[in-house]
Design a protein that fits this description.
Blueprint (H helix, E strand, L loop, with lengths): L9 H12 L19 H7 L8 E3 L20 E6 L1 H6 L12 E5 L7 E3 L16 H4 E2 L2 E2 L12 E8 H5 L10 E2 L1 H11 L8 E5 L2 H8 L11 E2 L4 H6 L4 E4 L17 H10 L2 E4 L4 H10 L3 E5 L10 E3 L3 E3 L1
Parallel strand pairs: 7-9, 8-10, 9-11, 11-12
Antiparallel strand pairs: 1-15, 2-3, 4-12, 4-14, 5-6, 7-13, 13-15
Helix pairs in contact: 1-9
Keywords: Hydrolase
GO molecular function: hydrolase activity
EC number: 3.5.-.-
Length: 322
């Protein structure tokens, strides 16, 4: 497929795509749920039918110092520190009566350093946030005052569909860095797997990049080249009425981006214009292996973000049940 935009003019392409894909006002002027509006009670009831065996998969990476972050824009890996330990208890220094002791700990980390959701306050387009609101009135030094991640803490429960693009399109189950997944590619994967994607679904896209970096080392996983969705998929993301999408990569869209001088242009459409929630750095390998083995690529998913008040993104431990 020939890229249909001028690679030297991302500004015009983003404006054109925003006009085609905008959901502003679709759910009223006060909306904070974006595409999660597609995932209603009826869809959640239908999703329960995806559970047949009761097999459970955590789709989260480990939250520890052995993570992908390298300090870009002050993003670091989690730092886990003990406040009380078994050593303290054995030494009798905790000051508790009748021999009781305990352990306690603390974690310091950027909220988007590992498996996480991007909230609707994460990305703006020319100073406009989701639903056309002025970005300065949405996110301030006090956090996201309108679409903080806590407003959708109950929203990510429903039917998930895994699109294993790595197995379907790549060699040895992996797509190479820089591979741009187009709508045609996604349609091909859907057809190969014999699954349907539609309103209210949470789409999981496995590229195989996480598999590769686990084998070869993190390298530039955090921010470097990666397979991912093409800018041209924006209309598919809007038209299919999916509730959310998550990938096994750091940035969801193909990197380097398809324009000569751009940074995450698909984010600039998906979040502030479509109102789409994006999950990144999800571990889809075990689920994908199971799907390949039994030929079923849908499952029940619950993936509630930690409801940090005013956060523009949050860690999550997604649980898939088949």
């Amino acid at each position: 497929m020939t890229f249909p935009f001028d690679r030297d003019d991302p500004e015009s392409a983003i404006a054109e795509m925003a006009s085609r894909c905008s959901n502003w006002g679709r759910w009223g002027p006060d909306d904070v749920r974006g595409t999660l509006n597609h995932l209603d009670d009826a869809k959640r009831r239908e999703a329960a039918a995806s559970v047949r065996r009761g097999a459970v998969f955590s789709l989260a990476q480990a939250f520890d110092m052995n993570g992908p972050q390298k300090g870009w824009r002050r993003r670091t890996n989690p730092v886990h520190t003990m406040l009380d330990t078994g050593t303290d208890a054995a030494a009798g220094t905790q000051g508790f009566p009748h021999g009781i002791g305990g352990a306690d700990d603390v974690v310091s980390m950027p909220l988007q350093c590992s498996t996480q959701w991007d909230g609707l306050g994460h990305i703006f387009d020319h100073g406009r946030a989701w639903n056309g609101r002025p970005s300065g009135e949405v996110v301030t030094s006090d956090g996201d005052l309108v679409t903080g991640i806590e407003t959708v803490a109950d929203g990510f429960t429903g039917r998930a569909v895994l699109l294993d693009a790595g197995r379907a399109l790549g060699e040895d189950g992996e797509l190479p860095d820089g591979f741009a997944l187009t709508e045609q590619h996604l349609t091909e994967v859907i057809a190969q797997q014999g699954v349907q994607v539609g309103r209210g679904d949470i789409v999981l896209v496995r590229t195989g990049q996480l598999t590769r970096v686990r084998r070869d080392g993190w390298g530039d996983y955090a921010g470097g080249p990666a397979p991912g969705l093409s800018f041209t998929t924006a209309e598919w993301l809007q038209r299919t009425e999916i509730a959310a999408i998550a990938t096994d990569t750091w940035g969801f869209e193909v990197r380097p981006n398809e324009f000569h001088d751009a940074f995450q242009p698909l984010h600039q459409i998906a979040i502030p214009h479509i109102g789409l929630f994006i999950g990144e750095m999800w571990d889809l390998d075990a689920l994908a292996a199971d799907c390949c083995a039994d030929g079923r690529y849908d499952c029940f998913l619950t993936a509630a973000p930690i409801p940090v008040t005013g956060a523009v993104g949050a860690p999550v431990n997604p649980i898939a049940v088949k």
